[in-house]
Design goal:
With about 260 residues, the protein is mainly α. The protein has two domains: about 1-40; about 55-260, MetI-like fold, CATH 1.10.3720.10. Helix content is about 85%, strand content about 0%. The protein is flat, with a radius of gyration of 23 Å.
């Protein structure tokens, strides 16, 4: 009885202790920041105190239309994520299916992920104009590499035994893909979709900031231009929280796919 109880306690500690330590560290850093600001060691105009940022949050809802800006950024991010999935998963399958193409282009896709794609925004402005299409197109372009690479990685990692069983049952290539390859590779593909969605969110906010076309990025840029520094930091904190929520939802989805 003692061993299972000790194992349960160790498991609980392993699950609870890391987030508690992380939250305590964050609280300590905020307290230090507040202390330096109160002591005058930090210029509040450059870096407002945490209590000033917290006080500015309600103003974002009452005076700056934060919900509208958030919904615009969310819509653009989700559209980019869906398009990236519809394009990236088939491309990843092609790189898996045709080995020569995989050897030839996998490094290209990886190098594309490391490139500063945001610098191409003037070209996208010329092609699509100053509208949501430019933001979505650039977000799709940025989100594609992880989706493609993780799709190929997941399909490459499917056990040969499962494929041989499918072939022994005389499954067509289509049935083999949808009944065996795709379910087996789903957790890894889910990782690529999670990374792609987060990158899409970063790209969307960054492009909105650059071209001043609505959304959270434009709100942050406008607050900075008006020297509403506390509100600007509050808006940035809101984007960070949304990114964390996206990450948590993606992580939960991966675990769910792994159990399914």
């Amino acid at each position: 009885m003692a061993a299972p109880l000790m194992a349960a306690r160790a498991n609980l500690r392993a699950r609870v202790l890391p987030p508690v330590v992380g939250l305590a560290t964050l609280a300590a850093l905020i307290a230090i920041w507040q202390g330096f600001a109160d002591a005058g060691a930090i210029n509040r105009f450059v870096a407002p105190a945490p209590n000033d940022i917290a006080a500015a949050f309600p103003e974002l809802f009452t005076e700056e239309d934060l919900p509208g800006a958030f919904l615009q950024s969310l819509g653009e991010t989700m559209a980019a994520g869906v398009i990236a999935a519809l394009i990236g998963i088939p491309l990843g399958w092609l790189l898996h299916r045709h080995r020569l193409a995989g050897y030839a282009f996998e490094n290209w896709v990886a190098n594309l992920a490391a490139a500063p794609l945001v610098l191409l925004y003037p070209l996208f402005l010329v092609v699509f104009g100053r509208n949501a299409a430019t933001i979505i197109a650039m977000a799709v372009f940025a989100a594609l590499p992880p989706v493609i690479l993780k799709t190929k990685e997941g399909l490459d990692g499917v056990r040969r035994t499962l494929i041989n069983v499918g072939r022994s049952l005389r499954l067509t290539q289509r049935d083999l893909f949808f009944r065996i390859l795709l379910p087996a590779a789903a957790p890894v593909i889910g990782t690529g979709l999670r990374l792609g969605l987060i990158i899409a969110l970063i790209s969307v906010v960054g492009l909105e900031y650059l071209i001043h076309f609505g959304g959270m990025g434009d709100l942050i840029a406008s607050l900075g231009d008006r020297f509403e520094i506390a509100r600007m930091f509050a808006a940035i904190a809101f984007v960070i929280v949304i990114s964390i929520i996206f990450y948590a939802i993606g992580e939960w989805s991966e675990k769910w796919l792994g159990r399914a």
